[in-house]
Amino acid sequence: MAADPLPARTRTILAEITDMLVSVVGDEILLVGEITCATTFNDDLALESIEFVALAELLQQRYGPSVDFLGLLAEKDIDQILAMTVGELAAHIDRVTLADQACAS
């Protein structure tokens, strides 16, 4: 069995994002297949803007206000937003929450 290339922390964040997406969109989102770091919000998941807002709320409830998903989107141009992957979001959450933990120490 090959080793999972994702660190445990990233796998956990990815699973939590997947659960949030199911909560926002419904179980039918799983029909697209497994949600991975390479899954795009636009092409693969076809998220609507209202679903982005709902996801942002769930992310802030789970990880705190420093995650600021809508702020992250605001920093991107339209092509970057359309190409954004679940992995990019997971990496952002990982970075921000690690920084928060370091500041709290």
Automatic annotation (TrEMBL):
Domain of life from the UniProt record: Bacteria
InterPro entries xrefs: ACP-like_sf
Protein name per Swiss-Prot or TrEMBL: Acyl carrier protein
Organism expressing this protein natively: Streptomyces lydicamycinicus
